[in-house]
Amino acid sequence: MLLFASGRTDIPAFYAEWLMNRLRAGFVDVRNPYYGQQVTRYKLTPDVTDCFVFCTKNPAPMLPYLDELRSFGFGLYFFVTITPYGKDIEPNVPEKSAVIDATIELSERLGKERVCWRYDPIFVDQTYSVSFHIREFRKMAEALRGATDRCIISFIDLYEKTKKNFPGVEEVSLSDQQFLAQAFSRVGEETEIRIETCAEKADLSAYGVEAGACVSRHWIERATGFSLVSPLPRQNLRQHCGCIATHDIGAYNSCPHLCRYCYANYDAALVRKNFARHNPKSSFLLGEAAESDEVHEAKQVSLRDRQLGLW
User: Fold this and answer.
1) 31-78 pLDDT, tens per residue?
2) Helix/strand/coil for 99
3) Angle 174-191/130-144 helices, nearest 10 degrees?
4) Model's pTM, two decimal places?
5) Helix runs in the chain, H state only
6) Are 302 and 47 in contact (CB under 8 A)?
7) In angstroms, rounded to a whole number, what is the distance separating the alpha carbons of residues 242 and 115?
């Protein structure tokens, strides 16, 4: 099983202490985001958890824990999102130079095969024009040269939460997608960073950007050093997504980055309320256990192909 930390909130940036406490305890409780009384308990042991997949805009809080994190014996794979937007769009994301520095240290300590850069989501307006994206993407790629050999790009999806928090934002036209893909591909060739999309409808392969999957067999096997079984369970959460299934241990409406394009936050007031409920010693990311909870042990099965070890 692959555990995801997280597509619902930024656990490395804001909840690193809690995560390490859960790893030491050997389990985590996750509320169903739609039926709060239903709780899934996941074992955090390497016999059933093959890899932790992290997604963050700020890996720095995890750096002091890396040695201990590795000692648990899980596979590790980090997606670090670094975009060119200012505080008007990403009000609480640290300065990009600091995020890049932390990403480089992460790569130096874990290996670049365990670090992927996400330039996501891309939107275009008068401030963040096509030429602006090309210029800033080049700067970031040059800074990250050698720290990763993979970058996932995607274009903004207009979820209802996104439209509520970011009124006026528009989808990126196909012509702009193609132009950006071609420009990014050239930068990728120069900096030895492979550029891929994930869950994008448009086929940009003619412009040098292949359709990929964030969490794919190839990249997880490369990061963990072992082969996975066949067939693998699929994510199937979004059309055109080819990712392996992961199980998210986060919670919605709990990311204080408060990025305007975010699909995981509904409103800032609720985020502040939820963040105040966080207890690093709780088995839940938000709040505590309740008498009405219906706790179910997750059916966890390792995806590691152990048969290969016999030959």
Assistant:
1) 999 999 999 999 999 999 999 999 999 999 999 999 999 999 999 999
2) helix
3) 20
4) 0.95
5) 11-14, 16-25, 66-71, 96-110, 130-144, 160-165, 174-191, 217-224, 268-276
6) yes
7) 19
